[in-house]
Amino acid sequence: MSHPPLPQSLHLATPLPGPRAQALDERAAASLPRALSAVTPTFAHATDRGVLEDVDGNRLIDLASGIAVTTVGGAAPRVAQAVAAQARELTHTSFTVTRYEGYVQVAERLNALAPGELPRKTALFNSGAEAVENAVKLARRHTGRPAVICLDHAFHGRTLLTMSLTAKVSPYKDGFGPFAPETYRVPGSYPFRDGLDGATAAERSLAQVDSQVGADNVAAVVIEPIQGEGGFIVPAPGFLPALQQWCHDHGAVLVVDEIQTGIARTGAWFACEDEGVVPDLVTTAKGLAGGMPLSAVTGRADIMDAVGPGSLGGTYCGNPVACAAALATLDTIEEEDLCSRARALGQTTLATLRRWQAQDPRIGEVRGRGGMLALELVDPATGRPDAALTARTAATARRNGLVLLTCGTDSNVIRLLPPLTIPDELLAQGLDILADALAGSR
């Protein structure tokens, strides 16, 4: 039986956390490692479009989408129906044992959606980190080279290799070394802080690759078209195309990590399309399957075929229920034109955030695209990152009913990732809560 639609309105029946959430928190503390903490002070029960209902009957406004996952809304009808129907027929066989059509259908859809006109193929995995790991495997086999280039402020996952590519030490890397060899970090493009245009920033990055790694040693350059966990950093125009051209000129594989930015989040199927960048390999996850675990590497057929039978995959990769959810998610995005919805949402929200910025010098920059927006908070006297202000603001907003995330290498960025199906009036109410929290955090 499906959950009835939730009213798209804020409702705080109890202080957060309520009594049932407090009891669950005590159980969690006794049974889970302390690493498994959460920023929202409650436990979820149900979700619908822009609302998350907790175990105490509180209805919260969701500006996180489970970290950019529930793009089409939590428990979206098409997705829920597809999951239930598939679960009645086939929950698992492993595609490496007995194949099934859903996997092929998802691959066909992603091959058709990926930027560029070259023949493409797709392999499915479970998580974003797995997708990045396998993209690097493919690049190394294709090129016969070892080195992988990543950028300052990057986040690519928490496995050994992807943790090595991730920039931020705490909480992702501290005490978990040694890290994977042949990974090299260079500066990226951070216009708010470096003041460089895209071409100059790229020249700086690539000069370091040439001098410290050597172009002939580079298997892959791994980039996020908008950096996620690092601070929702939008590179200066021209930066990404310059990296693409360098990879083309030197025979390296351009891996574009679209795990947070992809699948309509920024107003296009892939954020790299904004500047016409065509990846050799592109990774997707998060928004791909409406909340079910699924990721993908999609790319040039010659690279995808560089490894032999049995070299890619895993027990659960491309699970049939997750594939059904992905097909329903892609259908929902297309039929409801959520790319256009993301662009409209971004325009109106950015206008609001820029009004705040004009009145509050603590807002150093407003940035983002579509449904992926951010405020970088700074000390107005020095311009330095203000992590304490960010933490206070987010904590107050959460207590007042907002599901909200922060990010940034310096922990001073508030990020907004609403479901693209959130009603306009609910989003406006959520922004009002955030504005009040920021105003009160002096």
Task: Outline the structure in words.
With 442 residues, the chain is α/β, with parallel strands linked by helices. The protein is 38% helix and 16% strand. It has 14 helices and 15 strands. The chain has helices spanning 19-31, 65-68, 77-89, 101-113, 128-143, 160-165, 191-194, 198-212, 239-250, 301-304, 320-335, 338-359, 387-399, 424-440, and strands at 44-48, 51-54, 59-62, 120-125, 147-151, 183-186, 218-223, 253-257, 281-284, 295-300, 363-369, 372-377, 402-403, 405-407, 413-416. A seven-stranded mixed β-sheet has the order 4-10-9-8-7-5-6, with helices on both faces. The protein has a four-stranded mixed β-sheet with strand order 1-2-3-13. It starts with 18 loop residues before the first helix and ends with a helix. The mean pLDDT is 97.
Percentage of residues assigned to helices = 25-40%
* Biggest sheet, spatial arrangement of strands: 4-10-9-8-7-5-6
Helix count, DSSP H or I runs of 4 or more residues: 14
H-E string? HEEEHHHEHEHEHHEHEEEHHHEEHEEEH
Q: State the low-pLDDT regions, or none.
A: none
SS class: alpha/beta
> What percent strand?
15-25%
Count of DSSP strands: 15
Overall average pLDDT: 97
Largest sheet: 7 strands, mixed
